[in-house]
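Input structure tokens:
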């Protein structure tokens, strides 16, 4: 297949059928040699998933056929064509349309399909004045849903829970390309060696509010560097990087990690204790637990026992100093990195997740020592999985106390968090990061 755009169409069809965008992209990029082609592929691929609803809204205005009646290749062709016309200024309109129509020709032998794609794209290009978004004043939710391309129920949920102004910021942040960070892994080399290696490879990096985290600027292949191969770097969102820090693990402690895969936080815990803590790491999914094993090996983490288990039923007699409950969640804080999330979640799934999280917490709270601490975290933005989840737990146990995370985070990082809440909620984009929620719970004597 010669045409880059036909590859993009095929990749988008895979994601539509349920594949993960990140994995699909990684697999596709291996086949492409030229770095500029890789960049263009990535830009159009993610751009279309992020803006799907907005693009369809426009296509619908110019098509006499219902979108559900179109061949998938044609619909994807129209989306990528339109994305290039409206979002990429470096590709001349004629070239964008020509290449897209050629891609549709390559994928479908039926000549009508290419002619149809050509006709619609040319018409849109000639008559942009026909495109009108829903009226913002008359129907704010609908306007936001189309403009930022989110399902309307999700726009409503964000707006109900955060207010319309903050909701709009959340929606916009979810459409930005996420920043890439390296966590420096001190188990493999000194920081001076690590930084020297980045400099030698001409990688442009910046310090962040966490000592061991570095932001990579305009860098496309973070998994191919020397430091990565040597295990001195782990690619991790900076908000996720707070978890192990906030748990304040010490050498000699017994730590239970209830949902560990792919192992970002497990290996961070090992790093912070110089491999001197005893960590038990669970995950329900054996394939994903293998990723933890690979990461442990690459990063040189030690003293970690891996167990395939459902944390909602897991039994052991051990008492732990620390429990990390970085639980499965609806993932609404990760939309920038995994934009298909917004099309795959439902209100029902969010409720089901909240129930699962509750059962996992209830099943494991007895394993926490008196004076031990449990850190609850999710990468989502929904009250029922976050604040309400913790309120529910605290209402059921007299001996649990919510600790204030502000002084802890302000002490361990360069952040200066203020406010009344003892929780730590990081909104997407707030610190160039993904969205995260943290609550720290201490167990008191009976
Ligand atoms: C948010 S991810 C964990 C990320 C991980 N802590 C890290 O930092 O790399 C949630 C994980 O929970 C696992 N999971 C889902 N249901 C589970 C259950 N009932 N018991 C244990 N693990 C579960 C999933 O397989 C997934 O790997």
């Amino acid at each position: 297949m010669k045409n880059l755009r036909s590859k993009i169409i095929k990749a988008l069809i895979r994601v539509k059928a349920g594949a993960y965008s990140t994995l699909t992209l990684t697999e596709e990029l291996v086949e492409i040699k030229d770095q500029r082609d890789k960049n263009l592929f990535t830009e159009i691929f993610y751009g279309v998933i992020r803006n799907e609803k907005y693009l369809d809204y426009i296509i619908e205005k110019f098509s006499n056929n219902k979108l559900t009646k179109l061949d998938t290749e044609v619909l994807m062709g129209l989306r990528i064509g339109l994305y290039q016309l409206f979002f990429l200024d470096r590709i001349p309109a004629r070239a964008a349309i020509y290449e897209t129509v050629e891609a549709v020709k390559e994928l479908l032998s039926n000549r009508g399909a290419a002619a149809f794609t050509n006709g619609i794209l040319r018409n849109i290009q000639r008559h942009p004045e026909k495109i009108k978004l829903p009226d913002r004043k008359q129907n704010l939710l609908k306007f936001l849903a189309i403009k930022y391309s989110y399902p309307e129920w999700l726009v409503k949920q964000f707006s109900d829970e955060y207010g319309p102004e903050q909701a709009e910021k959340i929606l916009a942040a979810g459409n930005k390309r996420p920043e890439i960070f390296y966590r420096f892994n001190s188990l493999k080399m000194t920081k001076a060696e690590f930084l020297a290696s980045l400099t030698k490879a001409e990688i442009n990096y910046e310090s962040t509010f966490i000592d061991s985290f570095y932001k990579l600027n305009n860098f496309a292949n973070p998994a191919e560097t020397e430091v990565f191969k040597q295990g001195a770097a782990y690619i991790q969102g900076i908000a996720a990087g707070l978890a192990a820090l906030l748990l304040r693990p010490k050498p000699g402690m017994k730590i239970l990690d209830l949902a560990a895969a792919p192992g970002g936080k497990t290996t961070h815990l090992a790093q912070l204790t110089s491999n001197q803590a005893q960590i038990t790491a669970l995950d329900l999914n054996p394939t994903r637990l293998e990723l933890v094993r690979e990461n442990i090996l690459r990063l040189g983490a030690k003293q970690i026992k891996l167990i395939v288990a459902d944390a909602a039923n897991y039994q052991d007699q051990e008492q732990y100093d620390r429990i990390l409950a970085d639980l499965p969640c609806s993932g609404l804080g990760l939309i920038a990195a995994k934009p298909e999330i917004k099309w795959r979640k439902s209100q029902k799934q969010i409720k089901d997740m909240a129930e699962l999280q509750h059962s996992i917490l209830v099943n494991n709270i007895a394993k926490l020592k008196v004076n031990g601490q449990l850190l609850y975290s999710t990468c989502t933005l929904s009250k029922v999985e976050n604040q309400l989840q913790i309120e529910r737990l605290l209402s059921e146990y007299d001996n649990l106390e919510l600790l204030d995370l502000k002084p802890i985070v302000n002490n361990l990082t360069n952040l200066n968090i203020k406010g009344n809440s003892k929780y730590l909620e990081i909104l997407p984009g707030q610190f160039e990061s993904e969205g995260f929620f943290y609550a720290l719970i201490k167990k008191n004597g009976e």
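The chain has four domains: 4-130, 140-174, 180-235, 242-443. DSSP finds 19 helices and twelve strands in the chain.
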